[in-house]
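sorry for the late reply, my laptop died twice this morning and i had to redo everyting from scratch. anyway the thing you sent over, i finally got around to it. pasting the sequence first so we're on the same page, its 228 residues, then the predicted structure underneath. double check i copied it right bc i was rushing
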Amino acid sequence: MLKGIFWDNDGVLVDTEPLYFQAMRDTLSKIGIALPLGLYARITLEEGRSSLCLARKAGFSKREIERLRDAKNIRYGKLLETGVRPLPGVPEAVAALRPHVAMAIVTSSRRDHFELIHRHTGLPQQFDFVLTRENFHQTKPHPEPYLKALDRSGLHPSECLVIEDTRRGLEAAQAAGMRCLVIPSVLTRNAPFPGAWKIVPDIASAVKVIEAELFTTPAGEAMGPSNL
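ok and here's the structure:
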C-alpha cells in the first residue's frame, strides 16, 4: 500500500532548471567555454555530474574550479531572486494528495537556494519534511538522498513512490529500492528513463496514476478516500 511520496524539487515542483543552466552557462562563458543546452542536459540531468567538469577538462585547477563554483552559485542565487513560481498544477496536486500519504521533498539544491526558490510559493509547509544538499554526503544518482528520506519517514521502500524528472533522479530512486514516476521536463523529455514505474506528460496525469494506486485494493476493487 502506498504510504509515502518523495518529490524532487527542481523540474518537478518548480521550473528552476533553466535558471541553473543559465547560471552555469554564464559562468563558463567567462572563461571561454561554451555550454550548449544539449550538453548541459546530458552531463548534469542525465549523468548527474557538474558541468564544471568542462573547466577541469580544459586544464583549470581545483582551486580555480572552486572559484567558478562559487561564482555560479552567486549567479544562480541572483537569478532566483527575480522570483520562482510552482509549475502549473503543482499546488493543486500537492493539496489533492496530502490528506492521503506522507510527503517529503528530496532535493540536491542547497538550503539557501531552496529557501530563495520557495520564499513565496508556500509549498514546503505542505510537506512533512524537506531534505536538501546539506543533509547528505552523496547526491543523486547516488541513493543516499532517498535512503535518508526512507530513514526519516520510517517507511519501507515498497510503501513509497518517488516523483522525478531526470534520469539521475530515477537511478537514485531505483538504487534505494523504490518505484519512480517520471514527469519529463522540457530539458529531459528526450532522455531515456529505463525501468521507470510510470512516465507521464504532466502533473495532472501523475495525480491520476497515484490516485488509482491509492484508491484501488490489490484485488482491483475501488475504494473511497474514507477507507484510507
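Residues 219-228 have pLDDT under 50 and may be disordered.
thats about all i looked at so far, will dig more tmrw
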